[in-house]
Structure formats: C-alpha cells, structure tokens
Amino acid sequence: MPRERLCLRVPKVCGQHGISLATKLMIIDRLLEVQTDANFVYIPLIRQPSAEELAELQVQVPDYLLQLQMFPEKRKQSNTVMELLEGHLPPHLMASLPKALDVIGDIAVVEVPTELDNHKKLFGAAILAAHKNLRTVLAKAGAVSGDYRLRDFEVIAGEPRTNTVHKEFGCSYQVDVAKAYFSPRLSHEHQRVSSLVQQGETIVDLFAGVGPFAVLIAKNHIDVKVYAVDLNPDAVELLRTNIRLNRVENRVFPLVGDARLVVDAKLTGVADRVIMNLPEKAIEFVEVACKVLKPEGGLVHFYGFIHKPDSLDSLKARFANAVANSERRVDMFLIAKTVRETAPYTCQVVLDAEII
Length: 356
Ligand SMILES: C[S@@+](CC[C@H](N)C(=O)[O-])C[C@H]1O[C@@H](n2cnc3c(N)ncnc32)[C@H](O)[C@@H]1O
Hints:
The protein is an alpha/beta fold. It has 11 helices and 17 strands. The protein has 3 domains: 3-71, Alpha-Beta Plaits (2-Layer Sandwich); 81-161, GMP Synthetase, Chain A, domain 3, CATH 3.30.300.110; 186-355, Vaccinia Virus protein VP39 (Rossmann fold, 3-Layer(aba) Sandwich). The chain has a 7-stranded mixed sheet, sandwiched between helices. Bound molecules: S-adenosylmethionine. The site of S-adenosylmethionine has 21 residues, from α7 and β12.
C-alpha cells in the first residue's frame, strides 16, 4: 500500500549522491521505493533531518527540497541496523551505535566507538544484513596520516578487501582505500568544480588521487586537457585505470611525483585552472600553483582546514599573502566556504581565487 512520507527531493543529476547521503545519515526509509521523474529523484525519509544533517544536505546537495510524497512499499523488506541489533546489544550500547556510514562502491566505512569494540563484528554483520547492496564493512582503525593521506582499516564483516568500484556523477572509479585516498564526502565539490570549467581550458590537479576531479572534468568537457599529478604511485596506477574505465585517455594525463618537481619539469605556465586538494599542506604549495598558472593568471581551487577559533578570513589572508610572495596577486575570491566538518572544531573549507 502506498504511504505518505517526508522526502528529500534532489535534481536527477545528484540522485545517486542524494541516496548515498541519506543512507550515510541513516535517514532513508528503506521500506519504501525511491521515486524518479524526468527532473528529480524523491528519497523517502524515516524522520525529519536534524539541524546538523540539514546543514550537511545544504553543503552536499544545495538544490534539495523537503516535501511530502506518496511512496509504494518495497516488495522485499529488510530490517534496519537498529532493529537487527535490538535485543543483541545491551540498551546503553544501542545509544552508541554510529549514526552514519560512508558508502564507497559496495563497501561501508564506519567509525566504531571504543565502547562497541567487543561488538563490532555483530555491528558489521547487521550493516550487511540491512544494506543488501554492500559486501564489506570496514572500521576506521586510525586517523588519516602520512604524505599519501591514508588510514588503516579493519574488515569487520563480509569479503576481506579494501578495493571496489565507486560510481559518482556518471563516472566509475576503481578505488582501494588502503592504498590511495578517496572520500565520497567530497563528491559535491568534484561536481561543483567540474561545472565551472570552460571549453578549451587546461587544468592541473596538483594532488589528484584516483582522479575524482580530473576524470569527471574530462568526462563532462570534450575540449579540455587535465594534468593529474600525485606523489603516491598506487593512486596514479588507479588513476590510469579510471582514465581507461571512463574513456578519457585523450584528455587526462597522469603524472607521478612530487607536485613541486613535476611542475618545475613539465607544467610551468600551462594552466587556466589549478585544483589543490591537500588541505593540511596546500598552503605550502601556493607558490607551485602560481608557477603552474599561465602568465596572465587563472583560477585556483584551494582546500584547507580551519581549526576553530581560526576563521575563513584569516585563511584567506594567509593564502593572499602566499600568493603575493610568489609575485602574483589575488584579484578576488569568488568563493570562500565550508565544505564539511571533519572533526569537532575542524572544518574543511574551499577558496576559489582568481589570481593574476
Ligand atoms: C586529500 S588527497 C586528495 C585526492 C583527490 N584529489 C580526491 O579528491 O580524492 C591528497 C593527495 O595528494 C597526494 N600528495 C601528497 N603530497 C603530494 C605532493 N607533494 N605532490 C603530489 N601529490 C601529493 C596524496 O598522495 C593524496 O593522494
């Protein structure tokens, strides 16, 4: 029988992302069928999203709308993680169950609080039972660290692997989270930057990873050149696979090495647009971005972290100062905004700067 539910309406192009986000936030009503029409995807919700969840929706799918809608029931119903664990976990631990999970291809990535340490396999099994599209559950086993920005994982349920194929905005990516950085939480940024690219541009992605900016840009624009640099040879190997998978061999050019050395050797003065997604260190590479831009200048998408009480304005000032020290000037900041909260009091932010 059809049921009326609060739903998240997102533009069709963001449909998969909206479903992943609603799954991650655990607000999707999995007993009802997602609906689509020519322009939108309608995702049934089990409850009103909280203020923080609304803020995340605003960042990730800014064109979303909440509305009431009728949804048909799914034929085969599976229980939620909470329902599956009810009676198997002491009540005080039920409250500690993580409220969100990241979905990368058919892998769920979760942060298991220490008090659930002895029950993590049970938790992982419940996730697999509740989400039939998933095959593996990985628990984060440390912070992102090192030059390659990797973290350790523990397989807590399902197939013992860390590689999968992730789909995002019509592109497929071979990903191995143990070998190369990838975050589905940045998909909105991948799409936003791609949508700003103009015909005929040369783009340099200084910290390309497995290619979510570079491949999407090349997929969406036939008349561009994207140089995609990364220090991590495994990331560049996956990037090469992704270039082939998405048939953008004639537009994306992978380069392995330290961005400073690669730019000096091959990419000085070539770019209309530079992407700098290495938030903890990007400020040290502003000089490199200035070098890679064409003499007349161009655009830089700069990702950084802000640790409160530090502010966006102080990051803008540091960025502008680093540009000035590289014999260039920030003509204007087109965008300066928070992309996501990464920890209490820490945000990832983006500055889009026009540099001359
Ligand atoms: C935060 S990840 C971003 C990857 C990708 N842009 C994305 O959005 O998924 C940063 C990447 O920068 C690479 N990296 C770190 N230091 C580098 C350097 N000096 N030169 C080039 N790449 C570097 C790391 O290996 C990592 O893949």
